[in-house]
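Quick question, first post here. What does this chain look like in 3D?
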Amino acid sequence: MISTLKVNPIDEATLDEIGFTWHTDSDGSKYVSDELVQITQEEAEAYYEVANTLYDMYVEAAEYVIDNNLFFELGIPFNLIDIIKKSWENDVHWHIYGRFDLAGGIDGKPIKLIEFNADTPTALFETALLQWAILKSNEMDEAKQFNNVYEAVSENFKRLITLFDDTEKFNELYDGWKILFSSVEGNDEEEATTKLLQQIATDAGFVAGFEFLQNVQFDDEGIYDKNGNPYEYWFKLYPWEDIATDEPELATTLTHIIQNQKVIILNPAYTLLFQSKGMLAILHQLFPDSPYLLQTSFTPLEGIKQVEKPVFGREGANTKIIEADGSVSNETDGPYENYKKVYQEFVEFAEDIHNAKYQAGVFFAYEACGLGFRKGGYILDNMSKFVGHMIV
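> Answer (accepted):
Ran it through. Tokens below.
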């Protein structure tokens, strides 16, 4: 049984003031829980070690996919294959951050990988800032968290310049290169998350600007804000697979930009390999004895309870829980039904006294750097709640 501690929530006026405007769900319930999950230092260290190990496995698996031309198996759009290969070949295309979703790790349950949100992960604002603020507002020790997300992402921005060298060399190597940050207008959560990343990059020492995606200008020679100012880096909180299907001309232009070495795009195109849930099946093929992986296949598993999910899908949409006899016990609808499917062995999430299920989210920026939880039912959809944590 998960142990939680009741806390006083941050009031809505304060949340609005700091830019966290998505605090109330469509049914009127609060998105951020007024409880904290209590974990031990040993559990925090285990999350750290497992996430680091999983990232190394993903890197090896991505190389395997590229070497063996397995893009179709992962559902990768054909018009992104060239840009994925090009971004993979050169270390300057640096992966800024991602989030591992994990079952277990608390209440004595082993840690198991559910998926990796590597391209456009959400819950950054909540994990990096909000759960820390909850501890502070309750006059609790803010250090009692596995949470150095802000600092880790800042250091990773510096690695755009220093790469694998010591980030202390940033100031001597940085030559005024600028980052343009973009999200889609009208989505408060995505805008606030993108502007948080802009602030982190600014704190790291970059010149950084913001432009809504629909106002960004592109040609084969570069990427520009609406006033025609060029940028050396472009961060877009917009999925690569959506660019491929909804904006194919843009996909072609971005490929030319990368080939011409005019702009570096964040997160890089190769993170779409990590983002695809088809990689879960590749990982299981390559590392069948890993204690952190669930049996996963591109075809239904025989005789066991399993989860069917699209290779590209978000917020638990178009997910089915299939019992061992083939019957469907839980399912969600959504816009991702036409994507290829993977079938992953079912694993029980840890529960609290009210039988709510908990999934851990571990952020990764060069190394594992922070933990938060999502609380909900058997399928964690867009009505699940964010839950902070404390180390006891």
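Residues 302-346 form one domain.
The first strand starts at residue 4 and ends at 6.
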